[in-house]
Design brief:
single chain, 120 residues, alpha+beta, three-stranded antiparallel beta sheet
């Protein structure tokens, strides 16, 4: 499968309010699903199902703000919201690995012991 150029990538995701697993801070938003698509090939059903987006759909995508980059968005998801499960985090990394020039998702997957040689 061909990689999506970063300038053309739109990252869609959904999140939901869940209880903090440590129980200390009450409820918080957690990422439940992530999908990376070519902006020009995005399907309306995906945009309707996943209620958040960032990427080629934003005028300031890749214009110098670290949060407006693939890695910056993943870091924000992981550090601010978190993922509802390890499986969702792994799926998110696989999605971000679809973006051309982004080597860090595959590196993180390997660090988690996941074989990425046969991904895609």
């Amino acid at each position: 499968m061909a990689k999506i150029p970063a300038k053309d990538a739109t990252i869609l995701w959904s999140d939901e309010i869940t209880n903090d697993p440590e129980g200390s801070s009450g409820a918080r938003m957690r990422v439940t699903e992530v999908l990376v698509v070519d902006h020009m090939q995005m399907q309306p059903k995906d945009a309707a199902r996943l209620d958040n987006s960032r990427g080629a759909c934003d005028l300031d995508w890749l214009q110098g703000n670290w949060r407006m980059t693939p890695m910056g968005l993943f870091l924000e998801m992981a550090a601010v919201d978190g993922f509802v499960s390890q499986a969702v985090k792994i799926d998110a990394l696989r999605e971000f690995a679809k973006i051309e020039g982004e080597v860090w998702p595959e590196m993180l997957l390997r660090d988690l012991g996941i074989d990425v040689e046969h991904e895609g």
